[in-house]
């Protein structure tokens, strides 16, 4: 391998499969090569005479793995008809560079590519592999070990097939994966919730292969016993205050700061000093290192579309392998009562994309009986719910904020009031639906999402109140969603950006849709936990 000009650039002669002998140049940003054709002057590593021709290149940012694949055949392309070596195959030692091409337009999927290089000397191949791995593997961000859950029946029943498609990407990258194919509803939740802190800390993240429902199950299993934050105020507490514009309510939702240490494993100390190595240490959230991944195989896949810009398993897998990282707001949904007369203790659910009541709850409840229809069940259930055109008497109280907090502190879970100007506002009446969008919720039925401008980690949700209205007007609202037009440009639609709200209904069968999962509740409080989790994603391209 020859050095050219600087210590960071070098050139060597190798063979490239389906091309032939090439001059390969390594620089700090990538790998380039020029095919060499037969000519009467010059020399090569196989004692043949060649000249330089066209050039090709791959950037290191587009390389996800490099591996030595041993002795085998390299094919020389038929570029010189009549030449002794045209179309021949040679045996030599080989190594493979695995990469991808980014889409040329926003929202385009990434496509895989691979380049097989060869040389008669195994040590030269090993040297190239070692150098390329050193330049492409960012050990500080790439995962080494992942816990994977595959939903076999999600969407069109392609969960296992989807995983089999992307599994080689993880194998090539030498990422250890512990895979579980779920057998029942709640399987992933139970597995994750039962992990000890030490078991959980042996992984760099958890990957869900499925839809938004499986991701919600993973999310709740992870946070159910590992996220400590005060509940938002209950509807009863606000009623007892008696004044919805009372500034002293600021104490009810606090600014919660949770410091993480490296992997997010809290420092383990006792009265006698640090814990010993055999003691379990706590993994808490927010967590600066631990990430969740989602490989789409569901019916709508709103979360993955909103966070990567495309609904493509390979693109999502590459985001995971490359160690992409972005924070995501999570909504904490506290159910105070299942029905008006119930007396159960409060329970908590977490949502990554959406929580909705009324029309949204009816759709998810109706669709449960038509799972055999696959993704089409949502269209059918939506039609049934629309034709019923049911409205519900309810009271919604939300936190109105005049100032927005701009802190980007990495280790802060924010469920808070922004300033002393904050006040609670109340809406009471009949609603067709009450929706809370944490992210844009982009999907094939709503290309721009429910709220096109929703931020992924600003500490706010978008409260959408659809008041009772004539059937045709509600249809026009839904059509605007489908077309990507403004769905809020109606007098019967209220849209508010807020960090928290409460909801009360006197209906005995109040059903919420939480990330596509059913939650029966007539009294809830919802608050946003800013940047509570990190995703293997980089956000949609804009």
From TrEMBL:
GO annotation, cellular component aspect: membrane
Highest taxon of source: Eukaryota
A Pfam match: CERK_C
Gene Ontology BP terms: ceramide metabolic process
Domain DAGKc: 141-337
GO molecular function annotation: ceramide kinase activity
Protein name per its UniProtKB record: DAGKc domain-containing protein
